[in-house]
Write a structure and sequence with these properties.
- The protein has a single domain, classed as Metal-dependent hydrolases (TIM Barrel, Alpha-Beta Barrel).
- It is globular, with a radius of gyration of 22 Å.
- It is built from 18 helices and 15 strands.
- Helices cover 38% and strands 16% of the residues.
- The longest helix has 16 residues.
- It is α/β, with parallel strands linked by helices.
């Protein structure tokens, strides 16, 4: 399927590859296909438009699903581990889930060693063969809560207050200098973006500096926006003229910007983002698991807002299944009405818009001569094994049943990275064993974390985030 949802399947075809790109696509007689090729369907490989590259999934380290603001406090349970292993395991799982490229919003384990961590992530991208956009984290305010710390600390005992270790706050110039330092590691599969983590965590001065730097050098920007209701409430209090309008005033809204989540965006904000050419990564599974609400996909589409699809490191079944995530977005898109819905939406979101948000305009997201040779092979015959006769519409079959268990191959830049659902470039089981062995260290005090989470619940329930 060269342009899923836009064109009818091509039928039996031969795809020629040269120098990492598609050289030609020619229809052939079905009898010329090898037995292992019959029953397969080729698609443009999807892109994960928003992720964090956690080799150790959050639940695996004891951070159970909860409201985002509460869940974040439990992430300190993740042990310090080799950043290469952490990224390589995450990236290998993504390719086995059908992903050819991903945004990587880096969660540093040690801010002092951010540049070294980035170098390790760049090596992991090269070794796995995944295209990665590395969003350099920029954060300089509100490390624990959206507002003043005092009300939170007052709810903790003296020992618990003493145990809190706030990360050092870097100046804007130093944060931007780190972006430049990390850009030295760029290679064909690894590029750098500005990553202001979110307006509630980034000062106005830092956000304006990012906007100016992006306009100057053309580097893309990746930003969390309105993921939770608490973030919406904080923004309305802190920016009475409108946060999105403020971001537009400082020049941040542009086709170079991708915002993630947007669950609590309002119609006028959707319209403005669309007018400025901003991309939005929709992350349905994560929003469900972290109690953020459901993204209004139909509203986004109606506003003309370009939509990508992201796993956010929180796939519904903790399995990095990009194909299931595409179907979740599709079902939300068409849930509100009875009129026929455009089946191209899910494929365009993951293959075209998501790709643009991660890689820029590179001609990908379609199977056509000259396009990057990023091709996903799915077992159509297995998907339809119980169907009475041949399914009339291949697109409907995919949007009803496709999951990672039907992945038979993934080609990235002309190289077969996944074959028969197994990553070929690295030994994922061995990497996972090494990761778990090195992660077997004494965890932080779980009772203390639980008390902090209780204090956080009280902080937001008392609306302390609206008092600063």
């Amino acid at each position: 399927m060269c342009r899923p949802g836009h064109e009818a399947p091509l039928g039996a075809a031969a795809i020629s590859i040269a120098a990492g790109r598609i050289a030609a696509i020619e229809t052939i007689e079905a009898d010329l296909l090898a037995p292992s090729e019959r029953g397969l369907v080729a698609l443009p490989a999807p892109v994960d438009a928003h992720d964090h590259g956690r080799g150790l999934r959050s639940f695996a380290v004891g951070a159970a699903d909860d409201a985002l603001e509460i869940w974040l406090a439990a992430l300190v349970r993740e042990p310090r581990i080799d950043p290469y292993l952490r990224a390589a395991v995450a990236f290998a799982r993504l390719v086995e889930g059908g992903v050819c490229a991903a945004n990587h919003c880096h969660n540093t384990q040690d801010r002092e060693n951010l540049v070294a961590e980035a170098e390790a992530v760049a090596r992991a991208a090269r070794d796995v063969g995944l295209r990665v956009a590395f969003a350099v984290p920029i954060i300089d305010r509100h490390p624990l809560v959206y507002g003043e710390l005092a009300p939170l600390l007052e709810g903790l005992s003296a020992p618990d207050r003493a145990a809190i270790r706030l990360p050092p706050v870097l100046g804007v110039a130093e944060m931007l200098a780190r972006v430049e330092a990390i850009s030295a590691f760029e290679h064909p599969l690894f590029r750098v973006q500005y990553g202001p983590v979110g307006p509630q965590w980034v000062s106005n001065a830092a956000m304006a500096a990012v906007a100016e730097a992006s306009a100057r050098d053309g580097r893309r920007v990746h930003l969390h926006l309105f993921e939770t209701e608490r973030q919406r409430q904080w923004a309305d209090h802190a920016y009475p003229g409108g946060l999105v309008r403020h971001l537009d005033t400082i020049g941040l809204l542009s086709p170079r910007l991708t915002v993630a989540h947007g669950v609590w965006l309002r119609p006028d904000e959707c319209a403005l983002l669309a007018e400025r050419g901003v991309c939005l990564s929709v992350n349905v599974s994560s929003n469900l698991r972290l109690r953020s609400g459901l993204p209004p996909v139909e509203r986004f589409a109606a506003a003309g807002l370009p939509i990508g699809v992201g796993l956010d490191g929180m796939a519904l079944d903790d399995d990095e299944d990009m194909l299931r995530e595409m179907r979740l977005v599709w079902h939300l898109y068409r849930a509100g009405g009875i009129a026929p819905a455009d089946p191209a939406m899910a494929f365009d979101a993951a293959g075209v818009v998501g790709r643009r948000s991660v890689l820029g305009e590179d001609g990908g997201g379609v199977l056509a001569p000259g396009a990057p040779a990023d091709v996903l092979l799915l077992d159509r015959a297995a998907m339809a094994a119980d169907c009475v006769g041949e399914p009339a519409d291949l697109t409907e079959l995919l949007l009803t049943r496709m999951t990672k268990r039907f992945v038979r191959g993934l080609m990235i830049s002309g190289s077969m990275v996944v074959r028969d659902a197994v990553c070929q470039t690295v030994d994922l089981p061995a990497l996972q064993r090494q990761l778990l062995a090195r992660a077997s260290t004494a965890p932080p005090n779980p009772a203390r974390i639980s008390r902090l989470q209780g204090a956080l619940r009280r902080y937001y329930q008392c609306r302390c985030h609206l008092t600063s």
